[in-house]
């Protein structure tokens, strides 16, 4: 022990010397190290097994130890990669290395290191991490630290892409079992740069393996696609995935064990089926762990926005498990995707559907078809990716909605719970206020008010079973409770069992609930249209059997629905009126439907004992039988609303029944839309039948007829027609192009009892007429109608007292034929009476029956052709117009225009017409309508003129010639002539009278020629006004104007004008009147009025003024002719006779005068005058006084002043010497006023006009006069 210090000192000294020698040697050797480079490289290759090339090695010794500078290192790796280093600087701290017993470097820096490996990061299946070898031992154990500058590492990523990791700066520190690194890395690939990351690693070296530790990464806007696995890339097909993130990774045993990711900002995008989808995150955190051989990705808070819609706050966990046994007969293996989610909005994750389709095509198909929406409270899915039929699930949700997928109906407001798997599961549901589309089953979405059900299914190697229990659904108009089971055994027939109770408050909605895939389209079509209303409380549905064999024609299954329907509306066939207020029992039994009801209303009639059966759905035929009772008028309108509208209904429209009808009805109705067959019998008793084409009604119709659709055939029927008995039979036939109706009639009628003829005519005919008739009607199916009516008879037993030519004696044969041939627009009416009377006419069926053309001939042997123009042409025998007028005045022609419209163009020809007391010979009357009215031309022996009846203007009568002499006709019949043709007229009504402008060029009235007669007559209310009145005989001219006020009880006539002429006697002689006034011109002004008709002057009310002026003339014989009566009015004739008697020497037989002037006024029938003056040659006569025209009494005074020389009259003076006569005339004029001084005779005339009393009052000599 004493020598130990020495030994130690010696040893230490020795070591120091050795070290000193070694250091000295190194100082000398290291600068020459490059010369030994080949040997050194060979030694390294033999040691590592990797060929290495170096271009230069530089070394020297420093105080702390050697330094080394190596250039252009190049090494090839076994996997085909390489390692290239541009420069390596090394500074070894020898003293620290000795102190720590491991290499301690002051500097170990690699410049531009390029490391390329072809081994993927997941290439090792052993899970042992980075295996220790000489190369890793050098860097991880021999070096305490090293630096990388501007280096690159190229490797295969998890996605299979080659990526390059650029390392601008990295510092690596190695401990004994701990390895740390810090620096920057920049990942890039063939797609470009993927971002710069800050990296920190803290790894453990356990058992020689670098397999445990943590890695921290931080990056902004980095592309994470290269870090995704190849499977994720293929199935997700991300186009972009860039995030700003921080991550913490944990390695355990060389494998990625777990990690935490903080996605600050960023997102991903991928292409969907129709649009680009975007996913963005905001401070999303996620935790990734490895579960056994799988991975789990958990998001505790879903801060995710997809396609602009934020997800609701919830949790999401995705897990992938590697291949494992998923069951099945072959122990099928499949990797599995597990999903756990809470508070999930299905609509918000629509963008993930394309990814789901990649993961599971079946799931993608279902997702696309259903388009689910709503929120899932909790969801758990285990999806074997290669065996999706083994998917397991568990979920709870509220207000879920989706569209129909195959036999899964769509739904909304769907809440419930799902548990189990695709093979064996249970679904508990509750719905409210929802619609469930089920297109292949029901024709309309089920409108669920409230519903609940429990469904269980089982699918295995034996088949499929679906059970529905506790199904309680209250939907639109229906409430159903029941259960069902559907079985589909493998290799065997399916089976469906249903038992349900049903109630409805509106049977018209039943079509919503017929399962068309089970019941068949034809049946559903029929029932959907048939059941239109009703209520049922206890309907029962029973179903059992193979649904593919429905409707069980051979009883291999059972389908029955028994529905006691009340207050129903049932349309047994489309196009037919629905049966209403019906209590009917519907029994759906397999392939048939049996219905029955005690009574039902068919329109306005009642059907009893009604049965409606469809014995076999395949035959598609409905058979209806019923007894019909009701009013006949309701039968036609009922069939108008059926497919028999053009057949049976058309018949009943033309032959309209009324009254109670009893019938038996059988309907054979094809359900495929073919024509319905209607058969039956109809019994009539005291009914009525309206024959529409004839617009006539048969009453008391009794008998029976049968029908087969539109083919009707009657037995002999009896009826009353126009109050006459008639026998009828009819048939109808459905022809190829038209519907045909044939009616036969016969009877023996009394026209006077038909009540269709005017009363005056009925009173004029007696007897009966036997006749036969045939009616044929064709009703084309497209439109329109054609008909023919033929009536024949004989008027032999008929007696007529009508005016000629319609007068007839009983026993005289007179065959009559009437023929009608027409359509809905017009008809031709032709016929004959006897052998010479024929007529032809054409009628138009407008809104009012219109006669277009007609012609009647009385001397023809055949039917005459119609006139070319519209109008009536009548060729009549001699007629007594007065008798026909009298008949029309009794109302024969009244109301004719109410039922028919007749043309205005009328031509009437007759050889003789007795009218107005005169016979008009060879008369032709032609009436033609014009633009402003109607023109009537009359031509004959007695008349030639035109009457223009203008619209809204006075009528114009232009008569060229008129001869009217009723007196001649009266004298020819030994009848006294009337004073006036209007003498018997008591009341005239101006209603309907037109204004008239009368112009008669040559008029003969009552055998007297009047010449020209003009006058304008206007009507206003009850007043007739005459203006421009003129009578011009050629010898005299009379003008007139006035009015006639024709108020009932207050008639008034006023008339004024003048009468002028050159010779009064010539004018009077023209009318056959002699007058004592000869050779005198005349001018009479009159203005008269009285209170009566114009032809009845009333003397008591007569008022007016008369101004008379006669020129030079002679009064020859005062008692001559009617003109003398005018002189008698003032007793002027009696005065002249007295003067002749008293002064026979002065007054000769003739009395010449120069003028006669008089002004008279009449008041209340009394004529007054005070200036009547006769300026005679023999004497002047002045008269004054009054004449009472009512009592015909005179009260007159007359003054007579004899002429200067009475022995020579003025006339004589003119005869002897006209000059002397002129002087005498002048003297008488001048001295006339002095006659009272010469000699005056005064007379007073009184008494009756017919026998006046003339008394001389004064005879005064001239000398007295002078006093």
Automatic annotation (TrEMBL):
<dbReference type="Pfam" id="PF13116">
    <property type="entry name" value="YhdP"/>
</dbReference>
<dbReference type="InterPro" id="IPR025263">
    <property type="entry name" value="YhdP_central"/>
</dbReference>
<protein>
    <submittedName>
        <fullName>AsmA2 domain-containing protein YhdP</fullName>
    </submittedName>
</protein>
<feature type="domain" description="YhdP central">
    <location>
        <begin position="1"/>
        <end position="1254"/>
    </location>
</feature>
<dbReference type="InterPro" id="IPR011836">
    <property type="entry name" value="YhdP"/>
</dbReference>
